[in-house]
Amino acid sequence: MTSITPADFKAMRFICSAPNPRAFPEPAGAEIAFAGRSNAGKSSALNALCERTGLARTSKTPGRTQAINFFTSDQLRFADLPGYGFAKVPPAVKAAWQALIEGYLATRTTLAGVVLIMDARRPLMEFDRQLIGWGEEQGLGFHLLLTKADKLSRNQQLNILRKVEREMPDASVQLFSATKRQGIDEARAAIAAFATGVNEQVVQ
Asked: Per-domain residue ranges for the chain?
């Protein structure tokens, strides 16, 4: 694989929405999964990384999405996992989401890493921790994206960053703001490292 460039992100396009494993597209190249709680800013982060307004749709009803949305470019493929943790969703639906997410993470042969989106004001909630622990048991690498960092002061940002780094030493962690375009290059570099299997920077 040649170096991942910003063009690989900007060229990202929607492939399909898969409500179950039978609907997954055929594996092709390195695939990065994006996971996170409902309202953590996952769609906004994906759109900012790809510089594509509306690529990942933001639902007006948190927790509504019950499928994995797949996107692709020449060298990258993204899997946008359903948001989890929304309180008003029935328990049976929550269980189905968890089974879909864990089934995908356990069986997808081209999965190169997971970007876990967390609101910087509320990081490492219960299911975040469960997902990281379960994924690491499967040998998956995690990059933790602390979104909406612009809602915090600089001191608060640094304190949260250090706290998450201490608690999750096996994952890479960064601050991110889609609104302020903070952390886009750093996130792209982490994704490139997952995709290529080496710790390389995105070519600018």
From this structure: 6-196
